[in-house]
């Protein structure tokens, strides 16, 4: 059974606690910038273990020192609490790599 999509109110509350994230094309979106490619790749590698534990995988794209991330729960057809949780996890890892 799919997890419930967030309501507009829940999504607004979540975004208030995730200031660098926004909604783009119906997905939670953030672009991270690191000092160089090694830091960007280290962010992705370090995050991968936690992502796998959550069993909730991002759509992400890396070019040199940037990583763009989109989060959505495909089974639910939108943004869920799992996406918000993963956004917080990614923010913690990004802070370590800055």
Offer a concise description of the structure.
The protein is an alpha+beta fold and 98 residues long.
Task: Provide key terms for this protein.
98 residues; alpha+beta; Gyrase A, domain 2; 4-stranded antiparallel beta sheet; 3 helices; 45% helix; 21% strand
Structural overview:
A hairpin with a 2-residue loop joins strand 1 and strand 2 (27-33). The chain is built from 3 helices and 4 strands; from the N terminus they run H-E-E-H-E-E-H. The protein is 45% helix and 21% strand. The model has no long low-confidence stretch (mean pLDDT 95). With 98 residues, it is α+β, with helices and mostly antiparallel strands. The protein has a single domain, classed as Transcriptional coactivator/pterin dehydratase (Gyrase A, domain 2), CATH 3.30.1360. Helix 2 packs antiparallel against helix 3 (81-97). The chain starts with 7 loop residues before the first helix and ends with a helix.
CATH superfamily: Transcriptional coactivator/pterin dehydratase
User: How does the overall form come out from the CA principal axes?
Assistant: globular
Low-confidence stretches: none
Give the spatial strand order of the biggest sheet: 1-2-4-3
Q: Strand count, sense and closure of the main sheet?
A: 4 strands, antiparallel
CATH architecture: 2-Layer Sandwich
> β content, as a range?
15-25%
What structural class should be given to the helix and strand makeup? alpha+beta
